[in-house]
């Protein structure tokens, strides 16, 4: 193989690889756009699921409160559990606030 043939072979391989690279970059860009769209769609669907779960919980509680005794008891237990959870969260916030106040006093 002469030098000229080697250069032509090398040149054709470079052109082929350059073409393949452009195709791969275009595919990557298309996949990135699709991924962004799918992420947005997923976020919207998760928000919808969260909203529907909240609506279902409210519907179940209201049905339980207006239904038979077993359903009312179940709904009351659920409400009581939620109130305990809220109370626990409030006490955690109060404890954090007290700790911050104590740290501020110590730094003075």
Rg, Å, rounded: 32 Å
How many angstroms does the end-to-end distance come to? 85 Å
Portion of residues in helices? over 70%
Major β-sheet, in short? none
Mean pLDDT figure:
88
Q: Can you tell me the residue ranges where pLDDT is under 50 for at least 5 consecutive residues?
A: none
Outline: elongated
Q: Tell me the fraction of residues in β-strands, as a range.
A: under 5%
How large is the count of helical segments?
2
**Helix and strand pattern:** HH
Estimated structural class = mainly alpha
Beta strand count: 0
Structure overview:
The protein has 108 residues and is mainly alpha-helical. It is 95% helix and 0% strand. Helix 1 packs across helix 2 (69-107). The longest helix has 64 residues, at 3-66.
Keywords:
108 residues, mainly alpha
Q: How is this structure best summarized?
A:
This protein is mostly helical.
How do the helices and strands line up, and which of them pair or pack?
Elements: H1 3-66, H2 69-107
Helix pairs in contact: 1-2
